[in-house]
From TrEMBL:
Annotated organism of origin: Angiostrongylus cantonensis (Rat lungworm)
Name assigned to this protein: Uncharacterized protein
Gene Ontology CC annotation, any one: neuronal cell body
Regions crossing the membrane: none
GO terms of biological process kind: olfactory behavior; response to odorant
Length: 137
């Protein structure tokens, strides 16, 4: 018998602007094409995590936290954006199985290319930090 986890479903507020307006029409379609909108867009999703009032979703697999460095004009700003959710539903096209298998046995964090995690068509993707949680959250 398997146990259902409950994962946070949230993203940093800046992602909400990209989902709603985007910087241009191609970015809007890119985000909506690859990611599922979370239950919350909130600063509470950022580090340090503030779980009050955060919605949870049921999950048959692991919970993931994806951290992305915000770059402007090719330079890091020091600001990090966060996505938290169920590994099965965070990305519309799913995650690469070979990469996901690295996370399904332990609570672990790793730096990797976003293209190695998500099923992207692009090879020149940004590095992200991915953390897994085998239990709730």
């Amino acid at each position: 018998m398997y146990r259902q986890n409950r994962c946070y479903s949230c993203m940093s507020p800046m992602y909400e602007e990209f989902f709603k307006n985007g910087l241009n029409s191609s970015l809007i379609s890119l985000l909506r094409r690859f990611f599922t909108a979370p239950k919350n867009f909130s600063h509470q999703c950022d580090e340090p995590m503030k779980p009050e009032s955060m919605h949870l979703v049921s999950c048959r697999t692991i919970c993931l936290t994806v951290q992305q460095e915000l770059y402007v004009m090719g330079q890091p700003t020091g600001k990090r954006l966060f996505m938290r959710g169920c590994a099965l539903t965070l990305a519309r096209r799913g995650l690469n199985n070979h990469t996901l298998s690295m996370f399904d046995r332990y609570d672990i964090c790793r730096e990797m290319s976003a293209a190695d995690l998500f099923r992207y068509d692009r090879a020149d993707s940004q590095r992200v930090r991915v953390c897994s949680c085998l239990g709730d959250r």
